[in-house]
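Q: What would this complex look like in 3D?
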Amino acid sequence: MKNLSFLFAVHNHQPVGNFDDVFDRAFEDCYRPFLKIVADYPFFKFALHFSGPLWDRMRIKEKECWALIERMAERGQVELLSGGYYEPILAVIPERDRIGQLRLMNDFLEQNFKRKPRGLWLTERVWEPHLPRTLAGQGIAYTLLDEEHFRMAGVENIHAHYITEDEGWPLHLFPIDKKLRYLIPFRPLEEVKAALEEIEAGGGAAILGDDGEKFGLWPGTKQWVYKEGWLRRFLEFVEREGIRTRTFSEYLDATPPAGRVYLPPASYEEMMEWVLEPREFEAFKALKSAAPAEARRFLRGGFFREFFIKYPEANHLHKRMLLVSSEVEKHPGAEEARRELFKGQCNDPYWHGVFGGLYLPHLRGAAYRHLIEAEKRLPLTRGWDQIDFDLDGRIDLIWRGAAFQLIVKPGWGGSLAECDFLPESRNLTDVLARRKESYHAFEQPASSGEEGASIHKLSRRIPPEAADLLRYDWHPRLSLLDHFLHPDTTLESFQRIDYGEQGNFVNQPYAWAIEGPAAVLSRRGSVWVGEDRVPVSVTKTITPGEGIIRIVYRVENLSGRTISVLFAPESNFALFPFEFEPAGGRAVFMNRLVWEASAPDALWHFPLRTLSQSESGYDIIHQGICLVPLWRLNLNAGDGATREITLKDGHGR
Amino acid sequence: MKNLSFLFAVHNHQPVGNFDDVFDRAFEDCYRPFLKIVADYPFFKFALHFSGPLWDRMRIKEKECWALIERMAERGQVELLSGGYYEPILAVIPERDRIGQLRLMNDFLEQNFKRKPRGLWLTERVWEPHLPRTLAGQGIAYTLLDEEHFRMAGVENIHAHYITEDEGWPLHLFPIDKKLRYLIPFRPLEEVKAALEEIEAGGGAAILGDDGEKFGLWPGTKQWVYKEGWLRRFLEFVEREGIRTRTFSEYLDATPPAGRVYLPPASYEEMMEWVLEPREFEAFKALKSAAPAEARRFLRGGFFREFFIKYPEANHLHKRMLLVSSEVEKHPGAEEARRELFKGQCNDPYWHGVFGGLYLPHLRGAAYRHLIEAEKRLPLTRGWDQIDFDLDGRIDLIWRGAAFQLIVKPGWGGSLAECDFLPESRNLTDVLARRKESYHAFEQPASSGEEGASIHKLSRRIPPEAADLLRYDWHPRLSLLDHFLHPDTTLESFQRIDYGEQGNFVNQPYAWAIEGPAAVLSRRGSVWVGEDRVPVSVTKTITPGEGIIRIVYRVENLSGRTISVLFAPESNFALFPFEFEPAGGRAVFMNRLVWEASAPDALWHFPLRTLSQSESGYDIIHQGICLVPLWRLNLNAGDGATREITLKDGHGR
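A: Here is my prediction, written as structure tokens for the whole assembly.
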């Protein structure tokens, strides 16, 4: 195959906040053996991308890998690719941060490997048409996208590169061959050979860019790629066949683009489906399978930003990040804060597909930790502030203190949407709700082949305990959600979402006022009492102080009759360890934080767990603890009752 | 219908460079009567957008309209909408120009009508997801988009407004009800009433924004809307029914958004189809009609930028505009040049749909005129420059002189892609090729109703002379296209594109060099001579000087035998009047520009005409003159021949 050019890019990434042992295993089973082997074949040119978290670790702990890359870079075997340093989705972070993250990576590569990068690995290949300006403005000449991007623009030949522009800034685009993406390194060489011969016969170049974790870290691939020798056999095959491997830059300098393209926002086909709600996903799948081949290009799933519609928790994190970014922008000298912000922009917890992503508390926790760390490095004003931080068209209340930081959403139940504990840089209320996912419709396990199987084909193992995880929450698991429950409601029925809400407070708008140190939230709503809808008001006064947050509830019967209601304001915490003292109406988190309700008639608590998909099958993940004090209130006409909840830093108690 | 809010925006626009009498008729038949009538009904609140070309004219010639708007603005009846002043497609002009055009309109409205605009009419509703940052940054709180935009994002309720953001900048979006768009003002009030009642029953707001030209300027509407009294009857109906008309701002201030959206790039449904090639359009239509309702949201046609793929001439204009913009950017004080640039960004000639747009030479001519005027106001360096101005990944050669300005494309036939004549600020080579359009597949005339019919339903009149306009060019009509023709080729067969190209020069890459004052373009290619492919080289030396451009052709026979070839370099000019002097091998344009070929064996010329769609049916448009000198060259082995073409400013000859 002497007429075939093979362009190959490997992308390696581990998220900010991933476990140490995952990093270790990734280097041990995957990155290091890969680099050692390709370094044995100096003729084999390729492009390589490591994300910032991996470079940071490599510099300290993985000197052998570093040295291998250095050597291959020196002899021109490897072309290093740029990217946003901490692997953010470029389209959804502010332009100033896009530029900052790109410069960080460009400078890092130039200083350490002596060459300005010309190519970029686009995080998750999330494309929007205005990116060329930013990228070309930072010296990037090309990036790789999925063939689906090109198909959507009616491009038929994906074995060539194209040129696009924004505002007159040009960018070269290489289509990633999906077929090769599923063959390499999963299938026997005969199949790879057949595919490459076909490309050569068509006069094109074979272009592949993919996750390096497929070479040792994905299930089964360590055995297949290294122990059974797929990679060495592949490299020897490439040499034997005389396939011309070239860096993308070499190819670019020798070959004019095959044409001009303008691509709509897109990513790889699977991601554009993951972003859909399950019901929509079904409709899309049906349409896709019914559509004739020539019309496939007109079918689009969602685009990345819609993850912020699908997952309120992803939206909260995203808007929180934008808030921190706008604060960092006001302090141009705050370089440490800026780096923390960049770490908090790492893409993984902002979405969910085949990897855990958003579902993984340690990744969300890392994002919040870095965002809070950024804030702690800025001279932010203490006290209450009013700002529509999440851009839903309704004012939110933010309180910044020494120990706590709160975000209250008057427009949505007067709820507590975030409670940060600053001494530990933690968002205590970072709890993910249970929601229907497309993959909850379980397939029969597929027969697994003997060879390394693509992750997309791994058999679906149904966990026996899955059934009770498939109850879906009707609201995000915020805190201070003001339920009125039917007297017959049990802990179990509440937990199963098998109960009737008697009031209209949980997600409804509250009036608000800042009164001295307190935010006062109130709503005149109604509660079903027997057959009647009775007017009731709820006022909650949130008074944060040094090391303590006090919430005083006042429930008033606005009707002309005596009523009995069961008031049950729900809170959700992502905190461990957890001790429960029901007698005192207390719970203690992290041996330090004391949550207390004033003399509840009962105190419910239960774990919130989700069932999600990951590269190895299914994960059952403990997301947090739901705490619900129950107060049975007997209120005469026009009368009210007062109850209290406190959250206190009991450090040294 | 006392519970119904009716939000109504009227958008009025005439392109930069449109004929004076069209402007006059638009005010006479449409804008003035509309304003006079609505001013009689002060209860009727609405939003109004005039584009810059109309404001510029109104200020001078249409004082009555101006006064009516002033009065309605003062009493809060009308809310004026902003926009890019000269009505550019915001997504495809540079950010600096977006901001410049928005500020121009914002300042104009604030100075003249005493209120900062909060709403924006988005030119042709061409949306891309990064626009909110720009718009919100200029104080814009909302815009209107088509319901299709929202459908694509899975939004079902289009009788409410939504909020979106980019980089943390929020923007409110109002969906335009497509049904109302087809009812108002075309259908009887009973039908309008039924539609509004349905919206009221669903608890929503009726939201409409549309072209004001439907009120008097579109065929049949003057009679229907004014003479037959549709508009007055409609306003009286609104009053009688107690429908609440409000400005968009009033509504916005009183009503929180129904939800958050992220919309993909889109425009109205029709435009996303117009951008498709005819073959694709067929596939798309078939898919659309076969798709079940719930899957319709996943179907996308093209997006606006793809007009630059479909029409090379639109692409040329767009990239030319970007070049001028980058020159203007280098000269921050050049305010006059900047305004000329902005005029040159007016959207109409950049695309084509149901209106003539790109097909109309006077609109393209106006765009080029303003771009050239901008350049004339900048201190640009004379002589040759090398730049990939159209961003196709290949270097172009630009020559700037006192009388002429040239753009040569070595990568594409060494052709002359643009020849500007500066004394008259004209692009002499602005000729549109004949190409297949979806609407060339003629439908049977539909029966026209008696009432004002929507333009989309107007009967398709098939011009009897259409047939010979439906021959399609295989290349854009650039100049210095180096044909070798079969000896039997006739003028008629050449004109009908019914001939065989014997050489491989027309659109193939040429080597190039700048040698002193000249650009030297050369290609070693081949020509079919009888049964044989014979190696031939063509060298063209383009020497521009003061008032004259000299092109010297050298054709060389690289073979070992004697050959006879018919060399026929084609040029195309958009110039009138035109005198033809075949005997002298000469043509004279505009009584001034003399084109001359050195002793051709024949000189062909023929008009280039296109068949295009417009609001009134079909237009046959004279696009330019094709000029082809024929040189029969008998070349011995290794021998060559030299021929010459000149273009001279014969002013005062």
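A: To summarize the key features: Residues 417 and 478 of chain B are 5 Å apart (CA to CA). Chain B has four domains: 5-262, 266-302, 304-380, 438-649.
Q: Very helpful, thank you.
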